[in-house]
Amino acid sequence: MEMAFYFYSACCFLIIFSKASIATDTISPAESLADTMTLVSNDGTFALGFFSPGTSKNRYLGIWYNNIPMQTVVWVANRINPINDSTGLLKIESSGRIVLQVQNTTAVWSTNTTASARNPVLQLLDNGNLVVRDGTDSNPENYLWQSFDYPTDTILPGMKVGVDLRTGINRRFSAWKNGGDPSPGDLTYGVELEGSPEMVLWKGLQKYSRSGLWIGTGFSGAPNSGSSRIFDYEFVWNENEVYYIYFLKNQSVLSRVVLNQTDSARERYTWNPETQTWLQSIVIPTDYCDRYERCGPNGKCDSNNLPLYCQCLTGFVPKWPQRWSSSDYSGGCIHSKPLDCQKGDGFIRIRNVKTPDTTNSWVSTTMNLKECRNECLRNCSCMAYTNFDVTRGGSGCVMWFGDLIDIKHLQSDGQDLYIRVSASETELKKNSKVKLAIILTTVIATFFGFLLVVCYIRRSRRKIKDEVEDKNLSDKENEDMELAVFEFGTIAQATDNFSFCHKLGEGGFGPVYKGTLPNGQEIAVKRLSKSSGQGPTEFKNEVRLIAKLQHRNLVRLLGCCIQGDERMLVYEYMPNRSLDSFIFDQTKRAALTWSKRFQIICGIARGLLYLHQDSRLRIIHRDLKTSNVLLDSEMNPKISDFGLARAFGRDQTEANTNRVVGTYGYMAPEYAIDGQFSVKSDVFSFGILLLEIISGRKNRGFYLADQGSNLIEHAWRLWKEDKPLVLAGDFLVETGDLPELLRCIHISLLCVQQHPEERPSMSSVVVMLVSCNELPSPKQPGFVLYNKPFEADSSSGNDGPSSKNEISLSLLEAR
Ligand SMILES: *[C@@H]1O[C@H](CO)[C@@H](O)[C@H](O)[C@H]1NC(C)=O
Ligand SMILES: *[C@@H]1O[C@H](CO)[C@@H](O)[C@H](O)[C@H]1NC(C)=O
Ligand SMILES: *[C@@H]1O[C@H](CO)[C@@H](O)[C@H](O)[C@H]1NC(C)=O
Ligand SMILES: *[C@@H]1O[C@H](CO)[C@@H](O)[C@H](O)[C@H]1NC(C)=O
Ligand SMILES: *[C@@H]1O[C@H](CO)[C@@H](O)[C@H](O)[C@H]1NC(C)=O
Ligand SMILES: *[C@@H]1O[C@H](CO)[C@@H](O)[C@H](O)[C@H]1NC(C)=O
């Protein structure tokens, strides 16, 4: 039995070897491909053969990149019928049907070719397409069958994603279940044909993210995506076909788009020949609002408008105001004034949006905007309209019926959408327009006024242009995003050999130096203490992940530097240093008025919310404190040192750690004592930070002459005694907004409550900060008392195990 098997494999081996030397990229009916063999495309880019994914022992027939060391499979034939031994054999029958046989008999996979060929051959093309064609056909592009029509999870350049309306072939992509199982997961990507077509990412049967209408230069959800330095994108829509396709401008670049079940995302990877790795660039969904229907019917989602992502469209109000104000947006919005189609309605234009879900839409390519409006006005169930082809001066007409679903607000370049509202709503608008017109006329009547207007228009035009260009730039940057890896020499030179004069301070993970790059850019260099034991690749990968966390309230990581076992992180430089240098400084603190402080508080809250909830990594900061909040030139707060616990030392990424990282005085009791951390321990630190910003005193090192109380204790006592504002001090009380101040004290006490589950999440905190709803009463705060007296330095203490610091937890009942 065993002998027979060996004999059999040896035979196949020989057969194929002799064939491989005749023709490397084709198989004819007389030939076959066995488990050990591969078929290689003419230029050597792709290979077809049998493989086992991940740790699985199953065998699959697939296509992968032939010239790179990392096995990257782009297509799988028998994805739901794996072969459990090495007897797989690929053949092409004389009819042109491809058959994948096991044990010489059973077919685990085959194609359904209806057309018959006289002289069929199977060929692997240089673009990764496996085709069956008639060897005698004079047109080599007449395919009887092609793998591009039966895609799996990877979109290669030149592959169509969409529907051939003539043959009914729908090329819809689906992710692998996981790295070891290529069978289809529930994340799929393709064209939605209903209404006017657009690209959709589905999770099961639910839409997960939409592209918006194609507007000629890109999709309305990503208006500038039409082409870039590396790619050209197209969306073809005619009576025969509807599909999305992209091409590479440089044929020697390897790039692919893949659906990732684990990440629930559509990701683009481009091969970097220098580092021999795939670099991830565009990821869809791109942000919070890119996920389908965040804000319910007739709501509008704006990722730049934290915490209030969701707003009702103009002319609409929340259906359930109570739930809406507590961030439950599911009910969406309804018209604030009922429509009256008979008496006549009007339209309001909203700018820069990703167009709503087109399922309930109607489309015409020939109508213009004016005809579109008239048509929409006539039909009482038409709720909105727009044009879409910006390349042809804005032709085309789409009308929406019923609720408007999944509208996203963009920073620039989005589509204009015209929404139906009651006539009285447009009257309001008109009146204010008339008033504006009168004012303008008066201004223009005077010569200076006229000049002013001209100047203003010029300036704002230039500004708009700048913004657009900026955006393009950042899009491109994003696309080829690679982490800058600095030479050690460059960094040493920039920081004058890490000279003492350039030292900015000593942070949680090591000293920080100020530096100036040869191009004049100012940087902050964090030299990590040498204890991680992480290899350079591992470290770089981790840092790359952190570099992807981008938010205006986070310090931007520019790159890293690796030399021997030195690890350094390079950040943008923040001219105003850290928050503690202001609030604890007798003279500088006067610069921080209450409104400035409130802005800072809201900014920190947003940054932390992003880390906790909205970034793709879900980072728990674990060392949030005033010295880790940096201020830019306009005093906007930026959180620093985030993600370091993750990048630096894997032993600390478990949810229960025996190595406590953080700063005593900011640590939640459950973390300081049991080493248990969660987002709620960050909330605790945020509460302390809030108390410090309000009181101008350090929690640690706070001492009242008569009793060894700390700041939380002090604040809690004042709260119980019903004189919370004493905490803030005269300067803020006299100049600040008292309700806002009170609210912040209230929130800080909610954040430092003893039990983690009672503390609000950052998303609730962000809402509490700006809404006027009643807040719950704070319960007993958690105190950490230190037997060891306070050290003056507030910014170290990250490295000792908790036993050394002898902490004891004490509960205090306020009198
Ligand atoms: C492999 O699969 C075949 C059916 O496809 C089955 O008969 C055979 O027992 C399996 N062998 C092993 C080792 O699982
Ligand atoms: C496989 O099948 C072919 C014909 O169907 C036969 O000639 C050949 O001997 C078989 N080989 C093995 C190893 O069973
Ligand atoms: C062949 O046709 C069947 C039924 O129409 C279909 O389920 C199967 O996916 C097709 N196979 C290929 C490889 O196209
Ligand atoms: C194309 O890409 C290759 C590899 O990345 C590069 O070496 C070559 O310079 C590029 N060619 C052009 C014209 O950009
Ligand atoms: C999906 O993403 C994970 C990381 O989140 C990565 O390890 C995996 O390789 C990705 N899968 C594909 C098919 O790219
Ligand atoms: C409005 O348009 C819809 C969709 O085209 C159509 O079904 C309906 O009959 C129209 N109603 C009127 C009154 O024209």
From TrEMBL:
UniProt domain Protein kinase: residue ranges: 498-783
Domain Apple: from-to ranges: 341-422
UniProt record similarity statement: Belongs to the protein kinase superfamily. Ser/Thr protein kinase family.
GO cellular component, one term: plasma membrane
Keyword Nucleus belongs to the record: no
Membrane topology: Single-pass type I membrane protein
Catalyzed reactions: L-threonyl-[protein] + ATP = O-phospho-L-threonyl-[protein] + ADP + H(+); L-seryl-[protein] + ATP = O-phospho-L-seryl-[protein] + ADP + H(+)
This enzyme's EC code(s): 2.7.11.1
Molecular function as annotated in GO: ATP binding; carbohydrate binding; protein serine/threonine kinase activity
Region ranges (Disordered): 792-815
Protein name: Receptor-like serine/threonine-protein kinase
TM stretches of this protein: 436-457
Location (main, coarse): membrane
Compartment(s): Cell membrane
SUPFAM superfamilies from the UniProt entry: alpha-D-mannose-specific plant lectins, Protein kinase-like (PK-like)
A Gene Ontology biological process term: recognition of pollen
Coiled coil: none
Keywords assigned: ATP-binding, Cell membrane, Disulfide bond, Glycoprotein, Kinase, Lectin, Membrane, Nucleotide-binding, Phosphoprotein, Receptor, Serine/threonine-protein kinase, Signal, Transferase, Transmembrane, Transmembrane helix
